[in-house]
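Pipeline run #58 for the internal structure catalog. This entry was flagged by the ingest filter as a single-chain record with no existing model, so it goes straight to prediction. Upstream metadata was stripped on purpose; only the residue string is passed forward. Reviewer on rotation: M.T. Logging verbosity set to normal.
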Amino acid sequence: MPHTTLSGDLKGEGHRVAIAAARFNSGIVDALVGGALDGLVRHGVADDAITVVRCPGAWELPLVCRRLALSGKYDAVIACGAVIRGDTPHFDYVAGECAKGVATAAMESNVPVVFCVLTTDTPEQAQARAGGKAGNKGFDAAIVAIEMVNLLENL
C-alpha cells in the first residue's frame, strides 16, 4: 500500500515573517539578521512583509517571539541571537532557557518560531556560523521558516 508524504515547499510569496533579534553580541546577530532577510527575500517574501524587532538579549527573545507569534500578524517568527560561553555558568542558564522559551512560544501559538540563536564556545565559532566558513545560520533559519509555514498549511 503506497504511503503519503507531506512536506513544505520554499515559496515565500504572500507570507509575513517577523525576526526577533537580540542586541547583545550585535555584530554576530546583525549578520544573522542579514542572512535571514536575504533568505526570505530570495524565496519570495516581500520586503514589506518582514518586520525586525530588537530586544536586549537572548534571555528576552522568548517573550518577544511569543508576543509576535500570538499577534496573528505573522506566519512565522525567527529568533536571532548569540550566546557565547564565558567563565561562569551564565551561558547554561541563558542558552537553555532561551531554547526552551522559543520552543514554548511555537507550541503555544501554533506558529513556526525558528531557533536561530547561536550557542558557541568562542566568538570565532559564532562568526563562522554568521556568514563565515560554516555559512549563515540566519539564511538557513529563513528557509526553515518558509518550509514550516507551507508544511503546516499542507497538514
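catalog note: The domain at 17-150 is CATH 3.40.50.960 (Rossmann fold).
catalog note: The longest helix spans residues 90-109.
status: ready for reviewer M.T.
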